[in-house]
Design brief:
Number of helices: 6
Strand order of the largest sheet: 2-1-3-4
Number of strands: 4
Low-confidence stretches: 23-33, 166-171, 174-185
Structural class: alpha+beta
Order of helices and strands: HEEEEHHHHH
Largest sheet: 4 strands, mixed
Radius of gyration: 23 Å
Shape: globular
Helix content: 40-55%
């Protein structure tokens, strides 16, 4: 009997370890999602913007905006986190009213305005994770968000996410297939 109770204790301890690991990995994923970003945003010929470079950063979020002047020369300007937050907040207010281009259906491959682009790419890190998650639950916002971000970092993160979700296994390591063993009852 002592042997059975030590096995049960080991199973409980092992289960607690598995649960703790999943909680910790969830926290890690949430921290990565909230991480500040360094963006390079480029104006297209149609006047809309797309993200061409994105990198996580330890410091505050910031961006370099590349635009064309009247002579067609590329001008770069710096945007700090406070400016990015102000634009994202203005666009989020439009989202709440239903007037933002980020939640409209239509051609999303052409880019969006500067405020919409910033909101689409960095809503979680600029306005908070709850707002970022709420926006990503909107089908149009999610579609536009992924189409406006042309950076290699974004493509790499999307690839990692799809690989990890497609290879999930059940608690016992199988691929969620039912056991072919029948249920048996023993009396003793």
């Amino acid at each position: 009997m002592k042997h059975i109770s030590s096995i049960a204790g080991g199973v409980a301890l092992g289960s607690a370890g598995v649960i703790m690991m999943s909680v910790l990995s969830g926290c890690e994923a949430q921290q990565k999602e909230q991480q500040n970003r360094f963006l390079v945003i480029e104006q297209q010929t149609n006047g809309k913007y797309i993200v061409v470079e994105e990198m996580p950063t330890e410091g505050p979020s910031r961006a370099i905006i590349r635009e064309k002047d009247v002579n067609g020369n590329t001008i770069e300007r710096f945007m700090n986190e406070a400016e990015m937050k102000a634009l994202a907040q203005q666009e989020y207010q439009k989202v709440q009213k239903g007037t933002s281009e980020t939640v409209q259906s239509g051609d999303s491959s052409a880019g969006m305005g500067l405020a919409g682009t910033i909101l689409a790419v960095a809503a979680g890190s600029l306005l908070g994770n709850m707002i970022g998650n709420a926006l990503m639950n909107n089908k149009n916002f999610s579609k536009r968000s992924s189409s406006v971000n042309k950076s290699a970092y974004s493509r790499s993160a999307a690839s990692r996410a799809s690989r990890s979700s497609s290879s999930k296994k059940s608690f016992f390591g199988s691929n969620s297939k039912r056991s072919s063993y029948g249920s048996r009852s023993y009396s003793g």
